[in-house]
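Running log. JK asked me to keep both predictions on one page so they can be read side by side. First protein, sequence followed by its tokens:
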Amino acid sequence: MGDITGPGIALLLLDAALAEMLLFAGVLFLIGGLDDLAVDIAWMRLRRPPLRLADLPPAPPRRIALFVPAWDEAHVIGAMLDAALSRYVHDDYRIWVGCYPNDRATIDAVAAVAQRDARVRLAIGGRDGPTTKADCLNTLWRALRRADARDGAVTDAIVLHDAEDVVDPHEAIVFAAMLDRFALVQLPVVPLLDRGATLVAGSYADEFAESHGRAMVVRDALGAAMPLAGVGCAIRRDALERLAGGDDAPFDPGSLTEDYELGLRVAALGLPACFVRVRGPDGLIATRAYFPDRIRDAVVQKARWMIGIALAGWDRTGWGARRPAEYWMRLRDRRAPLAVLALTLAYAALAGGALSWGLHALLGGEMPVPGGAVRWLLTIDALLLGWRLAMRCGATAAIYGAREGARAAPRAVVGNIVAMLAARRALVRYVAMLAGGAPRWDKTAHRFPAVLPHDA
């Protein structure tokens, strides 16, 4: 290279650093790629077509309560409640909405619907918000118990939903049929996409298409603990009473991902759960909702998920039953920080490689090319990446059509950027929690569709 006393030495150090980053990132990508490949192979062997609504076993009458925790949801909660009330196929249900005393706008919006329809009940907590979603759910649980005692009734199951959800009209039929055998029942979540939806919103569609189209199917088939998605899920009353114990708070108010943890806690009690895909008269019975369409909102939401599942999950939920399938699934839940580290190194190596190429062209000499085992490692990683993108595109296309399926590949880059930004935020927030900071409901803005999916 000629002179190696100045820029040449810097270039040598840069090339050495790039080689180390490629090796480290390549190993992490290999582990993650083989993990995903194993899930794909298991799914191919274990998958079953969705059940049909008509094939579900007959169920006894059940009284159910929909719990909707709401903080700063005045602009969507009224439309959500009206839609659910007008379309829900069940004879005996109530919709309980939890609010905070310092959120007058949401209280008024819920009260306006409750005045028109007695099936809507309003419960206001004793503390100003926001606290955590789990704390709000505990307010709803206590209000339900008081109402049941006053009315001489017994609510059989609780269904969780968010204030922006398009509730499937037929979900209660599925829950009623399954709750005799299972303490928890989770339906798929299908993000809504407008025509010309942003890459950010589309990345949610891709991720849920894979997660609720494949990964959860495998998890259910292997008998591993079933984490809840927080919406479109039903919990039998007896399971919540056992979780509540003597303090009348079945949802852990110190958790940022109470839904995820609830499924694991129920499994620890030895109670069965299921993830079920059922095809109804309008297609797959699922909860539909708009997800964040801006990077900032997506970062806020995914940072909360990362804190609750991947970071705090290590000490809050442990490793569950001593079974290989359980260890595998919980390792998958908690691999997000390592995946982000691999992504960060890979993108840094790409930027550093471009810089190295330019400096080699300027100073003379050839840029070193990985060889031997590293070349084979990167080749295998490239093949696994191609497989992963093909599977993701196929999962998205199965729900949203070929056009959205094709867009899933470039959206993966956007999802990676959001994940890296979310990891930084999650780490800062998690360190603050370890230092004694109280968890807070770090929610994002929501919207409700003007035209409901099945009515379009």
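And the second, directly underneath as requested:
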Amino acid sequence: MNVPGRWYIGGYIMAAVLSVLGELVWLGDPIRWGDLYWIDLLQGLAALVVLVPLAWAAGALSGLAGLSGGQVVRAIRLLIAICGIGTAVLLVADASRLLPIAGAAAAACLLTLADLALTEQRSRPGWPRRSLSIAGVLLVAAAGLFWPTAYQVTSPGFTLAMNRYASVEGGQPHGSIAGVLVIERPAFPVDWLYASLFPHVRIDKRDTSVTIGESLEAAGRQRTDANTIAGAVALHKLGLGRGVVPDGVRVVQVPADSPAAGQLKPGDVVVEMNGQAIASTAALTEAMKGVTPGAEARLKVWRAGALAELAVRTKESGDTPKRTVFGIQVEDRVQADLTRKIGYRSYLVYQGGPSHGAVLALTLIDQLTPGGVTNGNRVAGTGTIGADGAVGRIGGIEQKAYAVERAGADVFFVPAGQEADARKGASELNIVPVRTLDEMLKWLAEHPASSLSRD
């Protein structure tokens, strides 16, 4: 095989190895390097992906330097070099831009296959069997590793040093406080193998009517909103602002099978239903009690800066008979009084979600409280945060508990009612169910850590 071909094959092998490692990257979570968690180290390790397109570009450039004749092959190699270097630049500049990166990388890969086939034909006339075999192997590997099925996989994820994730003006870190993330994505065929080999990897049917792009967009909004609510709640708890004032219900997702499909849209803000003002999800839930399943509800919603009036049909909840729902996902839209600046660190593997809200509020209170509030405990926690400081239910609790137990913690705060599921993932972990942020603070005040308990 010629020099470009060896570079191309090397890139394929690296891509396959990095793909498998990327899907199992959660296994390294207990690794620490000083104060850096595994999720921090991944920021640097992700740079290894750059080696794949650079290998293809290097192969193309080496071929350009020594090729005689073959203008088509020269053009292909020039395009490989451009796409390979372009992919590397995109990865370094902003690795979260998944679609442009995937497009450039796919173009570079396909062009390398074309180069292999044309070069083989020049050296041995006839069908380029070896190149076609390589293409077949790559196709099978890519399908197994990345073909999205109608299922979703939930895997244990990462613990996150909350004092690195967030910092509030005038505060400083005191205690050890960790958030925890799970990995939720469309299941690929290889995930059934992973589920048989590793504990607490769950595969379920997913709603295919919601695109991956829509899910990522919704998760990003939820993370931003959770940061806002947690910050305002924490500051209000310390007497630094008015806290959070709900002023409507934002539509997050509208599944295709919802009776509201085609009428409500993600981003709509419901402010009135059947003549009754709606300021929060709690108010919407209460108002729905007066609507018969299947009947229409008259809504007023803010959409693109204008107020719209809609008649939206309802349905009966699949979980609770006789309960009326629209079959959509919603969240509170709030006005938050943030009297201090709060900075947030960006993580490549954390694209969004609201489940860090409660532990974020605890972290900000710890930073602004002289001496902190952890009382010497290594704390981990999960749960959404409401405008009133309520800790709400989250998904993937079993996988999160497993991740926390592997990483080590003295206490793991979970939303009340989910402690039994959490213990399925961590039977030896000290799991404490809480309903509010105040309950977290009260438990920590009453349970100082003992150095003897860690021996």
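Observation for JK regarding the second prediction: Confidence is low (pLDDT under 50) at residues 451-455.
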